[in-house]
TrEMBL record:
This is N-acetyltransferase domain-containing protein. Transmembrane segments: none annotated. SUPFAM superfamilies: Acyl-CoA N-acyltransferases (Nat). Pfam families: Acetyltransf_1 (PF00583).
Length: 260
């Protein structure tokens, strides 16, 4: 993370760079881009638009806006150029967002993410300490770029900024969760979901997702739709039973759901 700088953005030129980053990070069509005018207006009314800079070049950004609850911010986008993923830029942007929000009396941040993208789930739950207990089917409708090819189902991440768990995760992350012996709510072979188990009652359960959702979206639309329908059924059922997604483990990609 040495050499990276995060700060609020200034002026329309930097906002236009955020628009360009949206194209590069997600491959979005023009209709899916948040335009610079809206970014400027949101910032004027109390929103956050911050950038991550490497040697003077903006390589990532975060955009959040106020909600009807003055203690809650909705974080609409966080994006980092592929070449700078793994550098800590995304984590620095979220640390900056947390500090910025707390300085203004905001105690909670929420955002949505694709439940089948393992790197996003790992970052949100494992590294940031967020949790999710809300499943949003086809939340944004048809999308372009890297999200094209399947309904835009999303999980709602909840980030309690004053939680000791959040502070620990972003500054001194614990070892990976121990999940040996936990029951799994679905059966998967290779990259194919075969069976959903909806009868589990353990305090903690696992839900497996694909290893490479991006590849499936590009190469196998039928399998992508099958995964969407499968995960919608599994998450929807267990969230309705009082479970929340609280952690994530890799190899294979699995959510840890906890009751209560």
């Amino acid at each position: 993370m040495e050499g990276l700088l995060v700060r609020e953005l200034r002026g329309w030129e930097e906002m236009e760079r955020v628009v360009d980053l949206q194209r590069q990070v997600w491959g979005r069509s023009e209709s899916d881009l948040v335009p610079r005018g809206l970014l400027i207006a949101a910032q004027d009314e109390g929103g956050l638009v911050a950038g991550a800079f490497w040697q003077g070049e903006m390589v990532g950004f975060v955009f959040g806006f106020p909600t009807q609850d003055p203690g809650l911010q909705h974080s609409h986008m966080l994006g980092v150029l592929e070449a700078y993923r793994g550098t800590g830029a995304a984590l620095l942007l979220k640390r900056f967002q947390r500090d910025w929000c707390l300085a203004r009396g905001i105690r909670k941040v929420v955002w949505t993410f694709d439940p089948l993208r393992g790197p996003n789930a790992n970052f949100n739950l494992r590294k940031l300490g967020a949790l999710s207990r809300t499943y949003l089917p086809d939340h944004y409708g048809p999308m372009s770029g890297i999200n094209a090819g399947a309904p835009s189902d999303r999980l709602l991440a909840e980030w309690d900024l004053l939680s000791p768990r959040v502070y620990t995760r972003i500054y001194a992350p614990p070892p990976e969760a121990q999940v040996a012996g936990l029951p799994q709510a679905n059966r998967v072979e290779g990259e194919v979901p075969l069976e959903a188990r909806l009868d589990l009652e353990a305090e903690r359960i696992l839900v497996q997702i694909p290893e490479d959702w991006g590849r499936i979206l590009k190469e196998d639309p039928a399998l992508a739709l099958r995964w969407r329908e499968h995960s919608r059924k599994v998450f929807g059922h267990y969230f309705a039973q009082g479970y929340a997604a609280v952690d994530f483990v890799r190899g294979p990609n699995r959510y840890v759901l906890a009751k209560g």
